[in-house]
Specification:
By secondary structure, the protein is of the alpha/beta class. The chain has a single domain (6-380), classed as Spore Coat Polysaccharide Biosynthesis Protein SpsA, Chain A, CATH 3.90.550. It has helices at 23-31, 51-57, 72-79, 101-105, 129-151, 167-172, 183-193, 214-242, 244-264, 266-273, 278-304, 308-314, 318-339, 371-380, and strands spanning 10-16, 39-44, 61-63, 87-91, 95-97, 114-123, 162-166, 197-208. It has an eight-stranded mixed sheet with strand order 3-2-1-4-7-6-8-5, sandwiched between helices. Helix 8 (214-242) packs across helix 13 (318-339). The longest helix has 29 residues, at 214-242. Residues 11-171 form the Glycosyltransferase 2-like domain. The chain crosses the membrane at residues 246-264, 284-301. Residues 375-399 are annotated as: Disordered. It comes from Actinomadura rugatobispora.
Length: 399
């Protein structure tokens, strides 16, 4: 029997590796929720700083594996058997939730077909070129692509930094997927293929700390784009049969990647082929860009109450980030869709987050959720088994 959403208990998992600086803001935002989580678990995944100590000071339950687990999904799976809630909210250790995030997300689960729900992600900081560029991408994506996909009941991804999952779904799939380098997209697609719904809740807002340096951005985009094409290789055939609308979004994304280089050189082609003056070609290219980007950004500015001039000033910053994204998208496409199937190289399995990595990243072997793994997880999570002690009442730490 399904519980009404108001009665559902929420367990929060925060995987953290060397996050003593970012973790306080994350935990403070969780403690400030208007609909309080029933359990907050921080997985201190091989940290060499004060991550565990900081988490305990905020009243969180701290789990520390014997060694670094090598991926975010594994850290989350380490905590999953200890989760007591009907819903599991996965939150990155550098993400801050709006005070009403859980309150706004919970009603989505009043529909028994909904297995995953995620909110609107925006950038926490706009200090550097890369953060400012990412802020434009998030404003555009979460106020254009996401609503369209949501209206078609086929979101491409529920962001791993702030998504809530039915615990039953996670048990059904053997936990968070470890077979690809991006567990959020893998689980979003797998759930929809299995007949469940994933939903986007635009009024639930979270702010993520994005790459502030070029090396960090490169590591993140390498992982994201390789993971995207790992999921294309793994799921596309079943998506076409079981979830054709989601397959359409995926194919459109692949086409956008394929044609991105052509768009970048369009001003040169106009100049060489049509003998258009360089200034006119650039003006045509830039005008077309603004025409496509302006309506969603104007809407986002009003919705998020951001001065429009600030958004306009950040638009030029998006192009360096897009150029790097195009490079890693093509690299991921060639590697994961061509070279890996031909046996000429290995799929990306090194999980590099970037900002907090002070230990050298180690490779891990992606695992599939075998029937034995699912049974073991369900046994660990069974109500007949001794349940972990609930966390002590949390008090807001002194400011």
């Amino acid at each position: 029997m399904r519980l009404p959403e108001a009665a559902m208990k929420v367990s929060v998992i925060v995987p953290a590796h060397n996050e003593e600086q970012g973790l306080p803001a994350t935990l403070a935002s969780l403690l400030a929720q208007t609909d309080q989580a029933d359990q907050i678990i921080v997985v201190d995944d091989g940290s060499t700083d004060r991550t565990g100590e900081v988490a305990r000071s905020y009243g969180a339950t701290v789990l520390r594996p014997p060694g670094n687990l090598g991926s975010k999904a594994r850290a989350q799976n380490h905590a999953l058997p200890h989760c007591l809630g009907d819903l599991v909210l996965a939150v990155d250790a550098d993400t801050v939730l709006a005070p009403d995030y859980i309150e706004r997300l919970k009603p989505a689960f009043g529909d028994p077909s909904v297995a995953i729900a995620a909110g609107n992600v925006q950038t926490r900081f706009t200090r550097t070129l890369w953060e400012r560029g990412r802020s434009i991408e998030y404003l555009f994506g979460f106020h254009w692509h996401r609503p369209i996909q949501a209206s078609a009941a086929s979101p491409m991804v529920c962001s791993g930094c702030c998504s809530a999952f039915r615990r039953d779904l996670l048990l059904e799939h053997g936990g968070f997927p470890e077979r690809t380098i991006v567990e959020d997209m893998d689980l979003t697609w797998s759930a929809q293929i299995a007949g469940h719904r994933a939903v986007y809740v635009g009024d639930a807002v979270a702010w993520a700390a994005d790459p502030e340096t070029l090396p960090y951005l490169r590591r993140q985009l390498r992982r994201w784009m390789a993971g995207f094409f790992q999921n294309v290789r793994l799921h596309l055939g079943r998506l076409v049969v079981r979830k054709p609308m989601l397959a359409l979004w995926v194919l459109l994304a692949v086409l956008e990647i394929l044609f991105a280089p052509l768009w970048w050189v369009t001003p040169i082609l106009l100049t060489v082929t049509w003998h258009m003056p360089v200034e006119q070609a650039l003006a045509w290219w830039w005008g077309t860009e603004l025409l496509l980007m302006a309506p969603p950004l104007i809407y986002a500015a009003r919705r998020r109450r951001i001065p429009l001039l600030r958004i306009l000033a950040n638009i030029p910053c998006v192009y360096p980030a897009r150029a790097i994204n195009t490079y890693y998208a093509w690299k991921g496409l060639i590697t994961e869709l061509l070279l890996v199937p031909l046996g000429l190289t290995k799929s990306l399995t090194v999980y590099e987050k970037g900002r907090a990595d002070t230990l050298p990243p180690g490779p891990y072997t992606p695992r599939h959720a075998t029937p034995q793994r699912i049974q073991a997880l369900q046994a660990l999570s069974s109500p007949q088994e001794p349940a972990p002690r609930p966390p002590a009442p949390r008090e807001r730490p002194p400011s």
